[in-house]
Specification:
Layout (H helix, E strand, L loop, with lengths): L18 H13 L2 H4 L12 E7 L2 H12 L5 E6 L12 E5 L6 H13 L6 E6 L3 H4 L9 H13 L4 H11 L7 H4 L4 E7 L23 H14 L2 H17 L5 E7 L3 H12 L3 E4 L11 H10 L5 E6 L17 H9 L10 E5 L12 E5 L8 H6 L3 H7 L3 E2 L11 E6 L2
Parallel strand pairs: 1-2, 1-4, 2-3, 4-5, 5-6, 7-8
Antiparallel strand pairs: 8-12, 9-10, 9-12, 10-11
Helix pairs in contact: 1-11, 6-7, 6-9, 9-10
Length: 423
């Protein structure tokens, strides 16, 4: 085994067929770190009339890279998802460690403090965005309480809404989303750097597009939001916000927004493909997006699994939707580990095939690990749906020796899933 693929004592306890996969992921991660992806060195910055705002799971790492590369002392406001990898914050005007996936009073307070402090006639804003930005950069519309705001989002999540549908709803009920941050700084030019965790790398969807208007409401989302509002007794308020939002998306142009750099959702997967090819695998990336209801996924990928031959691998990207979690365990179940648990019964038909899942942001629900695998050799997970619905899929796989933790990812793309057939 090459020196750069040496495994730790913990890895030695795993199925030997998993060693090369872990090694390839490590190498792909080393190429996908924030400080290697972003390039601000060509920027000419007027430090007297410029600020930085960074939001999401990678907010502090993106802001630190920005500060180091421009080598100027300008105010930088960072809204970082708590529990994800964080820098020291010594170079920032404000570093707020905030709740994810749902905002709290601390979120609103931190944003209001920053908005009060920033000169609203500022000319240049460097806006750095990563996944998780929707939760940490949230400010409910003035007619809504935070409690109602969170209830609407949770109800949509529990109803199985996709990330695009959720962000359509957020854009209606939030003062900053759907391009509405532009209202706060009408004279500013926004220089945007985005790391995508959504399909099609749509800036209007990443973090709910604070400076990218135009995310229109689908009929399904509009209906869902109206139903939720009726049950809460606030239909008139929501109808008014929908009307305002519709008018906003039609009238606003984005001449004062420049998308300087966007790192594609597929970046990490492409690096992983290359690494697997170097150790002799033929690798394909599926066009099937796994942002589907969890129990629909095995059928969606069945044909591709059936075509897999020795020394071949197939990669999927996406974020499975788990709408069956019990209310008691809502928010606990990891999407990655849940799909791996579910796939155990389906691998009976695919001997010698390993199904692997990896959370590129470093976290999978409340699981201690972020990499999981299953194979026919590991056996069928009994009571799989009960385990998934109780939010303990990651813990179950960990106890079975079917998981691993990458301590530092320093990146955030969509979840990665892979079927692989060694020799």
């Amino acid at each position: 085994m090459d020196n750069d693929r040496k495994v730790s004592q913990k890895e030695q306890k795993l199925d030997p067929s998993i060693y090369p996969i872990i090694g390839c992921i490590k190498e792909a991660l080393s190429q996908s770190r924030v400080d290697k992806l972003l390039n601000f060195k060509s920027e000419i910055i007027d430090d007297s009339n410029t600020i930085g705002i960074s939001i999401g799971k990678l907010a502090s790492l993106m802001a630190e890279t920005f500060a180091e590369q421009i080598n100027l002392h300008i105010p930088i406001y960072v809204f970082q998802a708590r529990t994800y990898e964080t820098s020291s914050g010594e170079k920032f005007s404000q570093l707020s460690l905030l709740n994810h996936p749902y905002p709290t009073e601390s979120t609103s307070r931190s944003i209001k403090n920053a908005l009060d402090e920033i000169n609203h006639d500022i000319k240049n804003i460097y806006f750095l965005v990563s996944g998780g930005g929707s939760a940490v950069f949230a400010l409910p519309e003035e007619k809504l309480t935070l409690e109602v705001y969170v209830h609407i989002i949770k109800t949509a999540v529990d109803g199985g809404s996709t990330i695009e549908e959720l962000n359509q709803i957020r854009s209606v009920i939030d003062q900053l989303k759907g391009g509405k941050l532009l209202k706060k700084f009408p004279n500013a030019k926004f220089h945007c750097y985005l790391i995508s965790d959504v399909k099609r790398d749509d800036p209007k969807i990443i973090a709910s597009g604070p400076v990218f208007p135009g995310l229109s409401l689908s009929l399904q989302t509009r209906s869902q939001l109206e139903i939720i509002a009726s049950k809460l007794g606030i239909k008139d308020i929501i109808d008014g916000l929908i009307s305002q939002y519709d008018n906003w998306t039609k009238s606003q142009d984005t001449g004062n927004v420049e998308l300087k750099q966007i790192i594609s959702q597929t970046f990490f997967a492409e690096r992983l493909m290359i690494r697997l090819q170097t150790i002799g695998y033929t690798v394909s990336m599926s066009k099937t997006d796994l942002t589907l209801e969890l129990t629909e996924i095995p059928k969606a990928i069945d044909f591709e699994l059936s075509q897999l031959k020795e020394r071949q691998a197939m990669i999927w990207i996406g974020e499975p939707i788990i709408s069956t979690l019990t209310q008691e365990h809502s928010g606990e179940g990891g999407r990655v580990s849940s799909l791996v648990v579910l796939m155990s019964r389906y691998l009976k038909a695919f001997p010698n095939t390993y199904f692997v899942g990896f959370a590129t942001d470093g976290q999978d629900g409340t699981s201690k690990d972020n990499f999981f695998f299953i194979s026919q050799k590991a056996g069928i997970v009994q009571n799989d749906l009960e385990i998934i619905n109780s939010g303990v899929s990651g813990e179950h796989l960990r106890k079975a020796g079917l998981s691993y933790r990458f301590k530092s990812t320093a990146t955030n793309f969509s979840d990665i899933f892979m079927a692989i057939r060694p020799l």
